[in-house]
Amino acid sequence: IIVNADKLTAKVQPTMWGVFFEDINLGADGGLYAELIKNRSFEFTTPLMGWAVKGKKIAEGDVLVLNRQEAAENNPRYLQVKVKDAETPADATITNEGFRGMGIKKGLKYDFSVMYRQASKGLKLHLELQDENGKSVGSGILTPNESGIGWNKQSASLMANTDIKKGKFQIWFEGSGSIDLDMISLFPANTWKKRPGGLRADMVQMLADMKPGFVRFPGGCIVEGRDLANRYQWKKTIGPIEERELIMNRWNTEFKHKPAPDYFQTFGLGFFEYFQMCEDIGAEALPILNCGMACQFNTAELVPLDQLGPYVQDALDLVEFANGPVTSTWGKKRADMGHPEPFNLKMMGIGNENWGPQYLERLAIFTKAMKDKYPNIKLINSSGTDPDGARFDQLNNAHRKNKADFIDEHYYRSPEWFFSNATRYDSYDKNSSKVFAGEYAAHNKNEPNGPNINNWRAALSEAAFLTGVERNADVVNMASYAPLFAHTDGWQWSPDMIWVDNTSIYGTPTYFVQKQYSLNKGTNVVDIKKGNKVIAGKDSLYASAVIDQNKNELIIKMVNASNKAQTQTVQVKSAKKLASTAILTSIANDLKAVNSFDDATKVSPTDERIDVKGKNVAVALKPYSVNILHIALK
Ligand code: AHR
């Protein structure tokens, strides 16, 4: 293998390797958004979904869900509880089951808050974290100290004394009186950056560890919605959380996979929080907006062209929300939420998986408006989901003709497809629109350990494919695997990069491959060949190389997709000297191997030091392995 370290063939964009986030598989509510109470504001289609009402002293009509539509359009429902002479937990309780139970950690503080209204004082709320059988594992008391006609907010804390995987939360009422309750909320105190009402820290940390170049959000199909009424509208996801109107999640009734009738989007994780998370982890924000079309896999609902105005305005206003001065209408809203500095948004997607002439017509209107007002914002155009189909080519050609900044390609294909597509981008026009490989994953239908499982074979094929993506970093400027997260007890789609339950998390083999690419992206692609040809599958070998000019380091990625070990001699042609030893990071395993909660790093990298002889390094590549060779230049 010859590496021409002085022959820089492409610049690697800082955005090259990113992540795709969607609220699918309990990704946000029940996942990244750390709220433990399901249906905290009684707005689910079934108003008491997630809640159980019980007690000897609760008669019919004592606990009601009331609707004040006129007074609070976005959050009309609340719970009214009337109790007389309640003395023990057996008298009057409401219990929340959590999303799939609640993860409770010993020694951790839990922050409870509630909005309430009571004409007069008289009730005490006993708060209890409980195990599955209803045994208390932590308690607190909240005595509502305001009365009158207005709503109040009050908080209390509880400490858990036991680890529980699937706990629940109970309020039992003591005393006599009537109280209205809304936004009943419980968060662990250990959220990301300890932000009240924030994100699950272990999940954000997994992303931060990858140092992603960008975060694409909020999806995915939820951008489009099953119908336009249920499309994602970013303006409804900012501001005080009690004013964020929830909608049914598009994955609530997914028919192909597991339905989850309790799957709603509360938008506690809304656009402000997405921008903030991006900033926290050093990633560019890449929001995707609805283009006036609902999900074409479900319905062909479109907004007529002459009514597209509000959709376009949403896109323009988003730039102002992210970047505008605090004196601007939307910049002020950002400042009011605690972030007067701009978020420095640079790009935006128009449409998710949309296609056809209807898409092109709508896209043209968005593009004109955006480029007129914000010429520096790069726009991402969709090219659908069939990477080998005529529709895909047609759309890509149209986008190229229109000089699109980025074309968003999606492919969920077999591992074989990924292996054989390592040369996919070699033939793309380097001077045309850039590619954003916005959603991809190897889907393996016929595995001995189950279909669509994140095993090593899938990750190995993705790694092989990504050598071709990296080699063509002047065409592909951004790439993200999808979907990102899945909850083991509530998912619609598999494979996924990271799996969680209520208290634990693990990265799949795919996660470790993605992380290696991201952490080792370098600054420039350098020429790497064997027999003067790109290394893209011959002898089951795939390779690409980058140089990191900041660290003065050469990074060579080699994938051995065969069941046999092979030793390759890498010869580096460079004006600079090489260090006398190199670090070889490798991931190798059986094709069937998977990670799990019990064995979270079974498939993960190990490092070894190997000798460099002058300008040559002999690298032993294990069977089925992904290898990253780091050679310092002197
Ligand atoms: O990643 C899961 C889904 O796959 C996304 O929501 C959609 O864009 C694609 O079809």
Automatic annotation (TrEMBL):
Pfam families tied to this protein: Alpha-L-AF_C, ASD1_dom
Annotated keywords: Glycoprotein, Glycosidase, Hydrolase, Signal
InterPro entries referenced in this protein's UniProt entry, alphabetically: Alpha-L-AF_C, ASD1_cat, GH, Glyco_hydro_b, Glycosyl_Hydrolase_51
Alpha-L-arabinofuranosidase C-terminal domain: residues covered: 438-625
EC numbers on record: 3.2.1.55
Top-level taxon in the UniProt lineage: Bacteria
Coiled coil: none
Reaction equation(s) it catalyzes: Hydrolysis of terminal non-reducing alpha-L-arabinofuranoside residues in alpha-L-arabinosides
Keyword Signal set for record: yes
GO MF term set: alpha-L-arabinofuranosidase activity
Family label: Belongs to the glycosyl hydrolase 51 family.
PANTHER family the record matches: ALPHA-L-ARABINOFURANOSIDASE 1
Name of the molecule in the record: non-reducing end alpha-L-arabinofuranosidase
Lineage: Bacteria, Pseudomonadati, Bacteroidota, Sphingobacteriia, Sphingobacteriales
